[in-house]
Amino acid sequence: MKLSINMAMTLDGKVVRPDGRWYGLTSKDDKHQMDVYRSQSDALIIGKNSIINDNPVVKIRAFPNVLNPRPVILVRKGSLPINKHVFEESDHIPLVICTKVNLKEIKTDLENRAEIFALDSEDIDPKKVTGILKRKGYKNVLLEGGPKLNFSFLEGDLVDRVYITLVPYIIGKNGLPGIADQSIELPKFDQNAWKLTSSTTKGNEVFLTYEK
Ligand SMILES: NC(=O)c1ccc[n+]([C@@H]2O[C@H](COP(=O)([O-])OP(=O)(O)OC[C@H]3O[C@@H](n4cnc5c(N)ncnc54)[C@H](OP(=O)(O)O)[C@@H]3O)[C@@H](O)[C@H]2O)c1
């Protein structure tokens, strides 16, 4: 199974606006490119905060007859509101992976809207997530952030590829996250250079692909 991160980033390396959300900074070309990556994927992991803050549309719009990847959501604490696009307009019932701590709450809120898989732990180990997805037969998994979730999968050495769109803005404000965000650094980050395998430009944006 291949796992690819896909993120849009400003010229100063930020992936959220000062209000903590991401909107209005990606062009039509970037949305089209995102649909290309999605159309090549069979599962799509989306971060809990990203769903709450951005309510992303999960349907592929550029290619009408293509099957959308199955949404996968990881929730360690609490639950998720059901009035989000991911529960309303996907081709597949989303897979929600939770813990023994919030299983009851998740069942109450999402029983008829999602397949629920509870881990017998209080945290969600990303290795367990990739194990579940492999067993379900998914071959190409796209991880569309946010930065906290990206960090967990990178820390677990589970990411094979990173797609980055460079968008032509500079925000400047300090403290805003980049594509991976935690209070610690990734182990041996300076010994693990990623390999640039593709770079294309469209309009004012650059589309980069890095592989391990
Ligand atoms: N520029 C872009 O392309 C792009 C793309 C996506 C998102 N974003 C931005 O990113 C922002 C959110 O990013 P974020 O980093 O705050 O949140 P996130 O990565 O979307 O979600 C993180 C949350 O997921 C839950 N989670 C479950 N298992 C986890 C695990 N193993 N590791 C880490 N988290 C786990 C945790 O919540 P619980 O502990 O409560 O369960 C955690 O707080 C959004 O507001 C959006 O604007 C930007």
TrEMBL record:
Chain coiled-coil ranges: none
Pathway, per record: Cofactor biosynthesis; riboflavin biosynthesis
Superkingdom: Bacteria
Keyword terms: NADP, Oxidoreductase
Domain Bacterial bifunctional deaminase-reductase C-terminal per the UniProt entry, residue ranges: 2-206
Xref: PANTHER family: 2,5-DIAMINO-6-RIBOSYLAMINO-4(3H)-PYRIMIDINONE 5'-PHOSPHATE REDUCTASE, DIHYDROFOLATE REDUCTASE FAMILY PROTEIN (AFU_ORTHOLOGUE AFUA_8G06820)
Name of protein: Pyrimidine reductase
Organism: Leptospira kobayashii
